[in-house]
Specification:
Layout lengths: L1 H32 L11 H7 L2 H7 L19 E5 L5 E4 L3 E2 L7 E2 L8 E6 L6 E6 L5 E7 L8 E5 L4 E5 L1
Antiparallel strand pairs: 1-2, 1-9, 3-4, 4-8, 5-6, 6-7, 7-8
Length: 168
């Protein structure tokens, strides 16, 4: 009986150490990826606060999110291009937008892979892939790999407040 308890305790601590190591590795990857010198546009927080609304700043710079089903682009189906609200970089085409029913604009692919950066996000006790603008580092949302019937099976779940839209 004592041997079984020892195995359980050792197994528990081994799993805990593995989780800590994985989290540290994920955080290092995130820090390396988010270094400001990897972005073309680098500004101080004060500069961003002057250029963005309070809500845009909270989402784009502080990695917040808007309340689902409240964003201006969730149910917009016009033809055009979605761009980064912080730097005007073209990110998504309306042709790749679909209704995922999640409450945020959803796209199955970006306009150009080089315009979007994907980063491991371990916040909120989850492991997700954060999507940021490769030009300015603005937080856009997350991407999920799921069987959703789109050509890529990806769902780029993007905050409306992170986007602007230029109609065709």
């Amino acid at each position: 009986m004592k041997l079984i308890i020892v195995y359980i305790v050792v197994g528990f601590f081994s799993a805990q150490c593995s989780q800590i190591a994985n989290k540290k590795q994920s955080e290092q990857i995130k820090q390396d990826t988010m270094k400001q010198d990897t972005f073309k546009i680098v500004k101080t927080d004060e500069a961003w606060k002057k250029e963005l609304t309070a809500e845009e700043y909270a989402v784009l710079r502080l990695k917040g999110t808007e309340i689902p089903h409240t964003g201006q682009y969730d149910q917009l189906w016009d033809s055009g291009t979605y761009f980064c609200k912080a730097c005007d970089e073209a990110l998504f085409a309306s042709a790749t937008k679909f209704d995922a029913g999640c409450g945020w604009p959803s796209f199955y692919e970006g306009l150009d892979k080089s315009k979007i950066k994907e980063i491991i996000d371990t916040s909120h006790s989850m492991v997700r892939i954060e999507v940021v603008c490769a030009n300015c580092g603005g937080h856009l949302g997350h991407v999920f790999n799921e069987n959703n019937g789109t050509p890529t099976n990806l769902r780029y779940c993007i905050n409306s407040v992170s986007l602007g839209f230029k109609k065709k």
